[in-house]
Amino acid sequence: MKALVRGVVLAGSLLLAGCQQEAQGSPPKPAPAAPVKPPVTDVNAEDYPMQPLPRGHVRLKDAYGGVHRVEVEIAATREARTRGLMWRKELADGKGMLFLFPHEEVQGFWMRNTLIPLDMLFISSDLRVVGIVSRAQPKSLESRSVGVPSQYVLEVPGGWTEKVGVRTGSTVQFEGVSGVDIAP
User: Fold this and answer.
1) Distance between the two ends of the chain, CA-based, in angstroms?
2) For residue 46, is pLDDT > 70?
3) Burial category of 91 from C-beta neighbours within 10 Å (exposed 0-12, middle 13-18, buried 19 and up)
4) What's the pLDDT score for residue 30?
5) How far is CA 59 from CA 96, 107, 174, in A?
6) Pairing relationship of beta strands 95-106 and 67-75 according to DSSP bridges
7) pLDDT band with cut points at 50, 70 and 90 for residue 25
């Protein structure tokens, strides 16, 4: 019985509070909305929401006849090629990024916002390594090139090519790359 009386008293109190608020003439004000942050559109910004890239593999023949397989993210659009490996804090051995360009020409790369040293392997349209930039210095705006036309560039952890014996002239094979459209 006491519980029923308490329930009736509580319901009455809530009804009375609602009537008093209505009598005062002002409905409760909603909490102010948090300011909406505009979307990040600068592909160079650390918090840019980059979409996941297609994946594939690159096989490289070393100077001793061995073959090394690298799992790659494939950068085939202007946005992906611009972003590259910016803001990555690590890149494990056996991993990398393969940049696909529409035409074979002299390519140049910089390390703006790239936090880790990289080896850059410049690859011709006939799938041969035409030059290597070893241990590119992080956070540098210096353009790195081998001065020879290439259509593809593979970035791997700094020092990897020397460690495994991949050199200029090494042959390359792509797996899972042929179906990726290359955007200008």
Assistant:
1) 80
2) yes
3) buried
4) 76
5) 12, 21, 6
6) parallel
7) low
Q: For 80-137, write each residue's pLDDT tens digit.
A: 999 999 999 999 999 999 999 999 999 999 999 999 999 999 999 999 999 999 999 9
- pLDDT cut 70: percent of the chain above it: 85
Closest by CA position to 116, among listed 86, 84, 72, 80: 86
For the CA atoms of 96, 101, 105, 108, the dihedral, rounded to the nearest 10 degrees, stands at -50
- 51 Cβ contact list (under 8 Å, min separation 6): none
Q: What tokens does 129 get? A: 């390594």
What DSSP line would sit under the chain, residue for residue? -HHHHHHHHHHHHHHHHHHHHHHHT-PPPPPPPPPPPPPP--TTSTT--PPPPPEEEEEEE-TTS-EEEEEEEEE-SHHHHHHTTTT-S---TTEEEEEEEEEEEE--B--TT--S-EEEEEE-TTSBEEEEEEEEPTT----B--SSEEEEEEEEETTHHHHHT--TT-BEEEES-TTSPPP-
State which amino acid sits at residue 23: A
- Supply the pTM of this predicted model: 0.80
* CA–CA distance, 159 with 153 (Å, rounded to integer): 16
